């Protein structure tokens, strides 16, 4: 696939969907009558949003990427690329086999695959057609996403234990607007954020930053606003201050759903809607119980806004979760920087770190 992309071509439409690596009816889940099970559902595909459902069974959402949620019940669940959900299902139906169904979303051709939910005292195999799901309806998915909220009364690992961390009361110190684009550069397909298509250097950025090696990257090589120009190649690094509280807006002017991930952080997904984001869009933000997660979708011709507390020093990758887009440049690095060299703020590079590129021969400091 890399060769295909390196030759300037796009990846073809996939052949099918796998559940735990298995094709149609290859994956099965055995349950006992009356018991409740937790399913963790992850979309580890290359580019397509998926809808997950189980014939005649409801799913109670309880967790999103490590965050307790309000326990809302769904009949089907949209899972975008790179996202994970935990749901509870109860084996409360007549004892037989039921379809587990996964289908693509927002694709002109809908791919569908099935698995089997098998009761231990099953009286028979799956029957009837697999239950249908949503296909191209954006509003349906948007409304479902808005219905997912953090459970502020649940204990556990989350950014606001016992409700003491009120992200909605913190003033943001900076707004970053990120817009994706696709186009040709030197006759080959490339993808970009704010017109910059990322090119990996021969030296890892963190090593270059730590050892202050010149000529590897330039801070500010990507703007914090789209300027509307054509796509160009660069090793894009954006500067941000340690402990800043930042608003990031993903503006998607393309006609596909997108998915973005930020390494090293959970962020609050405070808003999403169609059209162009403006400062007035803040009036509809959820500033109380928005989900904190690490991967968010951005719907076609739409925007998604997040708040993130930059409390983790380092060189962090922000990228499209669509593998081909990421590989062909739709990513950049956020340099969360402090002048402090205290171990309280950042651990030193391990002694056994691989020092390559222009960092070859350098020495890490001992702990």
TrEMBL record:
<feature type="domain" description="Plastocyanin-like">
    <location>
        <begin position="6"/>
        <end position="122"/>
    </location>
</feature>
<dbReference type="GO" id="GO:0005507">
    <property type="term" value="F:copper ion binding"/>
</dbReference>
<dbReference type="InterPro" id="IPR008972">
    <property type="entry name" value="Cupredoxin"/>
</dbReference>
<dbReference type="Pfam" id="PF07731">
    <property type="entry name" value="Cu-oxidase_2"/>
</dbReference>
<dbReference type="InterPro" id="IPR034275">
    <property type="entry name" value="CuRO_3_AO-like"/>
</dbReference>
<dbReference type="GO" id="GO:0016491">
    <property type="term" value="F:oxidoreductase activity"/>
</dbReference>
<dbReference type="InterPro" id="IPR011706">
    <property type="entry name" value="Cu-oxidase_C"/>
</dbReference>
<feature type="domain" description="Plastocyanin-like">
    <location>
        <begin position="203"/>
        <end position="339"/>
    </location>
</feature>
<protein>
    <submittedName>
        <fullName>L-ascorbate oxidase-like protein</fullName>
    </submittedName>
</protein>
<dbReference type="Pfam" id="PF00394">
    <property type="entry name" value="Cu-oxidase"/>
</dbReference>
<dbReference type="InterPro" id="IPR045087">
    <property type="entry name" value="Cu-oxidase_fam"/>
</dbReference>
<dbReference type="InterPro" id="IPR001117">
    <property type="entry name" value="Cu-oxidase_2nd"/>
</dbReference>
<comment type="similarity">
    <text>Belongs to the multicopper oxidase family.</text>
</comment>
<keyword id="KW-0325">Glycoprotein</keyword>
């Amino acid at each position: 696939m890399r060769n295909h992309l390196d030759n300037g071509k796009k990846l073809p439409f996939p052949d099918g969907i796998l559940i735990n690596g298995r094709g149609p009816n290859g994956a099965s889940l055995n349950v006992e009558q009356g018991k409740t099970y937790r399913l963790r559902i992850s979309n580890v595909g290359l580019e397509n949003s998926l809808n997950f459902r189980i014939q005649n069974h409801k799913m109670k959402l309880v967790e999103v990427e490590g965050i307790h949620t309000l326990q809302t019940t769904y009949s089907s669940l949209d899972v975008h690329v790179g996202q994970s959900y935990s749901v509870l299902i109860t084996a409360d139906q007549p004892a037989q086999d039921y379809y587990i169904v996964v289908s693509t979303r927002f694709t002109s051709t809908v791919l569908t695959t099935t698995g089997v939910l098998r009761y231990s005292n099953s009286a028979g195999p799956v029957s009837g057609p697999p239950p249908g799901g949503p296909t191209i309806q954006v509003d349906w998915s948007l409304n479902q996403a808005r219905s997912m909220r953090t459970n502020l009364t649940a204990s556990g690992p989350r950014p606001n234990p016992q409700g003491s961390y009120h992200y909605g009361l913190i003033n943001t110190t900076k707004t970053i607007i990120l817009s994706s684009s696709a186009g040709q550069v030197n006759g080959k397909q490339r993808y970009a954020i704010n017109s910059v298509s990322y090119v990996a250097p021969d030296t890892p950025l963190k090593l270059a930053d730590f050892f202050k090696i010149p000529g590897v990257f330039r801070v500010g090589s990507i703007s914090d606003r789209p300027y509307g120009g054509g796509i160009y190649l660069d090793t894009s690094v954006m500067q941000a201050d340690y402990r800043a509280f930042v608003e990031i807006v993903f503006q998607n002017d393309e006609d596909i759903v997108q998915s973005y991930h930020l390494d090293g952080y959970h962020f609050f997904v405070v808003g999403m809607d169609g059209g162009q984001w403006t400062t007035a869009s803040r009036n509809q933000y959820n500033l109380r119980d928005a989900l904190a997660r690490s991967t968010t979708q951005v719907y076609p011709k739409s925007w998604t806004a997040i708040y993130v507390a930059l409390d983790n020093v380092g060189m962090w990758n922000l990228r499209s979760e669509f593998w081909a887009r990421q590989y062909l440049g739709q990513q950049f690095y956020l340099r969360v920087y402090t002048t402090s060299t205290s171990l309280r703020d950042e651990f030193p590079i391990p002694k056994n770190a691989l020092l390559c590129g222009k960092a070859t021969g350098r020495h890490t400091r001992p702990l």
